[in-house]
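for ur thesis appendix - DUF2065 domain-containing protein. copy paste whatever u need, i formatted it the way the template wanted (i think)
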Amino acid sequence: MIETALLAIGLVLIVEGLVYALAPSLIDQLLIALSALPPDARRLLGLTAIVIGVLFVWAAKTLGA
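the 3d part is after this line
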């Protein structure tokens, strides 16, 4: 189980690092756009991301990861 958690965290860090390395100005624009959203919309966005992440993890485990 710990191996899967480490794998997941590592993959997230790789994807995050790629975005910052390849498109730093896009991150600035994204942060400006996010700051313009009301807190409830940001909360809903975060909850949606959690649900999608859980579904991905469930699908990966179902497929044998």
